[in-house]
Amino acid sequence: QLQLQESGPGLVKPSQTLSLTCTVSGGSISSSGYYWGWIRQPPGRGLEWIGSITYSGSTQYNPSLKSRVTISVDTSKNQFSLKLTSVTAADTGVFYCARRALSEIFDYWGQGTLVTVSS
Amino acid sequence: DIQMTQSPSTLSASVGDRVTITCRASQSISTWLAWYQQKPGKAPKVLIYKASSLQSGVPSRFSGSGSGTEFTLTINSLQPDDFATYYCQQYNSYYTFGQGTKLEIK
Question: Are strands A93-100 and A106-109 parallel, antiparallel or unpaired?
Answer without folding.
Answer: antiparallel
